[in-house]
Amino acid sequence: MTASFSLACRLFFCPCSFPLECPPRAQTLFLSWSLVRARGGSGGGEEGVGVKQTRLLQDAAVHAAGLRARESLRAEPLFHDPYAACLAAINSEDEEDAPSVRANGEPPGLYELATRFIDDTLLGIVKDKASEVRQMVLLTDGMDTRPYRLAWPPSSLIFDVSSDSIYTAASEKLKTVGAKVPRMCLLQHISAEVGEGEGGWGEKLVKMGFRGDRPSVWAMQGLHSLSAEGLKVILGYARSMAMKDSVFVGEVPLSAFGGISQEEASKLLIKMILSNGFDAEVIAHKEIAAGSGLQRAHVQDLDQKGEGLSIIFRAKQLRLSDDQVEFVRQKIEQAEEEGDEEGFEEW
After folding, report:
1. Beta strands in 255-306 (DSSP E)
2. Is the Cβ–Cβ distance between 215 and 245 less than 8 Å?
3. Which one is predicted more confidently, 133 or 12?
4. For 316-346, what is each residue's pLDDT tens digit?
5. How many H-runs (helices) and E-runs (strands) does the chain carry?
6. Calpha distance 10→144 (Å, rounded)
7. Residue 47 · residue 75 · CB < 8 Å
8. Hey, how many other C-beta atoms are within 10 angstroms of the C-beta on 29?
9. Would you state the pLDDT for residue 308?
10. 3-state secondary structure 6-56
């Protein structure tokens, strides 16, 4: 077990999905990113800080994969991720040193509930024949296996926007276990540190084939370092690029809002989403648990302990995308030109 993985467990995580030196079970993957910067950024100059932060983010993604792997082993799992176990072992140089993933008898945590809700939302949309959604924009930690494990319809174009180094390492590992996207689907990776507020990835999406005049669905999860500025950038791109009626679903770390309460952060998140042209709602973890058939005692336990340090949301685009606006503008100009020509002929 690497030292960086132990450090990441102390900084980020909820309970381990395998036997490791981690704190007692918590209710979230997220902790204030300012603490990560303080621990990971001491010394070494700017380059050293970047390397340490990338390592911590990779360890966070690895741990999340472990949680998905453990959930997949339960008798009645919320979801099944056949590729998570190999990603949970990605930091192990020797297979014998890889952490063993096993079910521990505990009910699902908040991360697993969020994963189930996002999965269900995505699949519900693409299975709706009336929606005709064939563009999926996934803002991820680089180890999201949804492109491989979800049943995407033919001709789907899936975009994974994430850290290049983490995504590359995960892709190489996934190849060894035969992970492939569904037949007649295409997966495109967009390199960007979206959690840090990096821009430019929207333009990359367009170059990779994304079209704002066609339906799309957007999802985000695993952005452990997400800042308020990063969230503004994400919502800004979704506002201008997502076609009217497109759905955006995701999980946001409470730390993105600077240490305010869960209730205050939820209100601020809704306000930010509404200001970008979406209708939005916050989904309580206990609602997902109740709707997933979990025992009432576990649902009540979630209610008593609070929602943790992440917020789940679902939003729907109410405005036209920039591409749609441009299409309407061109049609108006065309109609005006044709009208002028007809008027001239009559005169």
Report:
1. 278-283
2. yes
3. 133
4. 999 999 999 999 999 999 888 877 655 545 4
5. 13, 7
6. 22
7. no
8. 26
9. 63
10. HHHHHHHCCCCCCCCCCCCCCCCCCCCHHHHHHHHCCCCHHHHHHHHHHHH
- List strands edge to edge, sheet with 217-220: 186-191, 157-162, 135-139, 217-220, 247-253, 310-317, 278-283
Identify the burial level of 23 via C-beta atoms within 10 angstroms of its C-beta, where 0-12 means exposed, 13-18 middle and 19 or more buried.
Answer: exposed
Q: Which residues contact 307 (CB under 8 A, 6 or more apart)?
A: 110, 262, 284, 285, 286
> Whole-model pTM?
0.83
Q: Quick one: tokens of 293?
A: 């058939």
How many Å apart are CA 76 and CA 108, to the nearest integer? 11
pLDDT tens sequence across 43-63: 445 555 567 788 899 999 999
**CA-to-CA distance for 279 and 1, rounded, in angstroms?**
45
Q: In this structure, what token pair is assigned to residue 116?
A: 């189930």
Of 120, 198, 82, 210, the C-alpha closest to 158 is 210
Question: Token pair for residue 323?
Answer: 């591409």
